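ligand=farnesyl diphosphate
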Amino acid sequence: MKVLLEALAPGSEDLALARAIDSERLPAHIAIIMDGNGRWAQQRNLPRVAGHKEGVPAVRTTVETCAQLGIGALTLYAFSVENWKRPRLEVDTLWRLLRVYLRSELALMMRHDICFNAIGRLEELPEYVRIELGDVTRRTSANRGLRLNLAINYGGRAELVDAVKNLIQDEVQVTEQSISARLYTAGQPDPDLLIRTSGEMRISNFLLWQIAYAELYVTETLWPDFTRAELLRAILDYQKRDRRYGGLGGSETGFPDRSLEPIEIPIAR
Ligand code: FPP
């Protein structure tokens, strides 16, 4: 948090927003569905892939800000198992952008002590992408700051299928713990906050198990326009929420004193 406050320009909106954040109640894990690149390009009469290219600086700012804030983990949805249905040119451009991103961002990851981790069915990716992913994963593996999970060829259902196959193979008892321990995010806290850009009210097969109790923040902003200020606003919004996990929330009921009194239920005949 201190790192972010020191990095922001005096008098800026970003600094005012960052100062309003309670550093004691930061989400341990933020997950983001980066949506709207295609529409961003369409609105400017540009090819869809131009929207993906413009999405890269938003990825950079988001990753750097989370690291500076002291967030434990950030998971970004970069490519779903369903995205193979897109035109070949778009898919190939995404792989090329990913390679450029990985090469250009390594320095930033090292500077901010970020540990990079790719999640998804990586074995189905082009070899040159797997090599780059392996390289950045290895080089950042000793870093102890933000854990950056990039979801690539990722599907929540596919992840659960992989976990269950693993359980059967290991002949382990089926419990919530044994399933969690076989997910791609094993050992990490579940996301507290799930952000989705471009206004769609969908989960899109993202982290289905892990987001059971996540707070959702949906913004109309298209991903290339997603700024540091918007990320900070999402965190502030999260900090206003009363998280109940199916209970009543802390020791308070939020209702007047009579709220816990019993009522009479007539027996049905
Ligand atoms: C969704 O927008 C976005 C994607 C499928 C790809 C996400 C990629 C990036 C943000 C850029 C590259 C990222 C890295 C990490 C290098 P969409 O195309 O579905 O948008 P639409 O719904 O408006 O069509």
